[in-house]
Amino acid sequence: MSVIVVFLRPLGLRLTSQLESLKPDLIINPAAYTAVDRAEDERELAFLVNAKGPEAIAKWAAANGVPLVHFSTDYVFNGSGDRPWREDSPTEPLSVYGASKLAGDVAIQAAGGAHLIARTSWVYAAKGTNFLRTIARLAGERKELRIVADQIGAPTTASAIAGAVAGIVLPNLTTLHDQLARRGGVVNLVCAGETSWHGFATAIVGGLRSRGVTLAVENIAPIAAAEFPTKAMRPGNSRLDLSRLKAQFGVAMPTWQEALARELDAFVQLGAPAHA
């Protein structure tokens, strides 16, 4: 089986011709415009990457009978209430980023091919630019951190997402198209449990200290999102219901604490605190 992992920047506007040349048996599309605040000023670019790109991929995949795995976001919801969002919950994005990702989801569904749209949230890793690395750096520089405490979700490692997708795809390689045609669609894919950004930051700092990392921070103060205004609105409730993931694919996600422990081990082994 030939698999293509799509990156929109190098493929540019030549997606269809590139796909035709490569003729993959499976397409995995993790590419996205994720600059949430900048998207408010770059709406056209956000929609080009997050909606038009996936639409072109999905139409080609549907026409050629190729299954597509695509990644979406909790930002398609308005973040109200305190109940976990289900895959069929009403969507109402608060930002250009959320609207562009929702448009991509809708376009993929409209294309009519076998697909899996995995909605995730609060993604981070030992490498790259993300919340874990930012907190590690700031905790090493400052005595106090002020972190939002009234936005709730599930911190999710890139490795947990990859493991879940592998658990869905690998056992069904020869029948994946039919499997996704029957059981695919949208599925929530995040680590189990919930916390706030403040709770996440506190756990990161505690985890680093327990691994022998020396930090300057003495206090992690909880603040309201209103005290940290951003150009784009963030959902207050990013909880995602995992029932369908378990029922349809038999995948049980690790808790966010378990996933964090593994990622902190990797982070420290990389010697990352000095370079975060």
List keywords for this structure.
276 residues; alpha/beta; Rossmann fold; five-stranded parallel beta sheet; two-stranded parallel sheet; 15% strand; globular
SSE topology sketch:
Elements lengths: L2 E3 L2 H4 L3 H8 L3 E4 L13 H22 L3 E6 L22 H16 L3 E6 L2 E2 L6 H11 L2 E5 L3 E2 L2 E2 H12 L6 H8 L1 E4 L6 E2 H14 L8 E5 L19 H7 L6 H14 L7
Parallel strand pairs: 1-2, 2-3, 3-4, 4-9, 5-8, 6-11
Antiparallel strand pairs: 7-10
Helix pairs in contact: 2-3, 3-4, 5-8, 8-10
In short:
With 276 residues, this protein is α/β, with parallel strands linked by helices. The protein contains 10 helices and 11 strands. The protein has a single domain (3-274), classed as NAD(P)-binding Rossmann-like Domain (Rossmann fold, 3-Layer(aba) Sandwich), CATH 3.40.50.720.
Structure description:
- This protein has 276 residues and is α/β, with parallel strands linked by helices.
- It has a single domain (3-274), classed as Rossmann fold.
- It is 42% helix and 15% strand.
- The chain has helices at 8-11, 15-22, 43-64, 96-111, 131-141, 158-169, 176-183, 197-210, 243-249, 256-269; strands spanning 3-5, 26-29, 68-73, 115-120, 123-124, 144-148, 152-153, 156-157, 185-188, 195-196, 219-223.
- It is globular, with a radius of gyration of 19 Å.
- Residues 7-12 have low confidence and may be disordered.
